[in-house]
User: Fold Arginase-like protein from Drechmeria coniospora.
Amino acid sequence: MADWEKMTTDTTDSLRSVESSSSLGYNSQLVVDPLRTYKWPPWQLNFWIFAMLLASTSIMAVFSLFVQMQYRLLLPVPWYFPYCIVVSIVAIAFLVCIFCLIAHRRLLPAIVMSGAFVLFVLWMVGLVAVSMQLWGPNGSVHGNCSLQVFNRSPTGMSQDTLAWMQQKNICQSWYLVFFMSLAGAMSLVWVMVMAYQVYTSS
Assistant:
């Protein structure tokens, strides 16, 4: 009789433990929130990352060289040189964050749109500054390059030829910065539109 009561007690305890474990498992399943994923177009996203990386590194390299030239010539450094360098570094850091989010499958359209909008505002300030210096009405870089560089074509082993080649490289670097800045601004607008389309389609 005692054995029967003991067996009944053990069976009841085991049933209670199973019920409690099942209830805990059910509660834990209720707490878990399934991760929502978004389907990004891979080719468009990769092309945008490549375009932004190319634009940022080009602008940073050119203006870093210009800063060194200003120091060498004992001239003041314009504010937009270090500003564009910092904005390019911020853009590269933003791309690194996007790479990390892609690796962990956490790339959300809201993060991309917010970051791209902030970066677009900063980028446009640099683009306006570069445009004013390149295409401005008084003493613009384009005007000086057209009159003093592109209208000349010296040849031979002379200091005049070497100076002209250096001036031509500087003028071409200014055009490179302008077109890279314009391409970067258009790419940021494009990625904001793409992120919105990904959000609505998902």
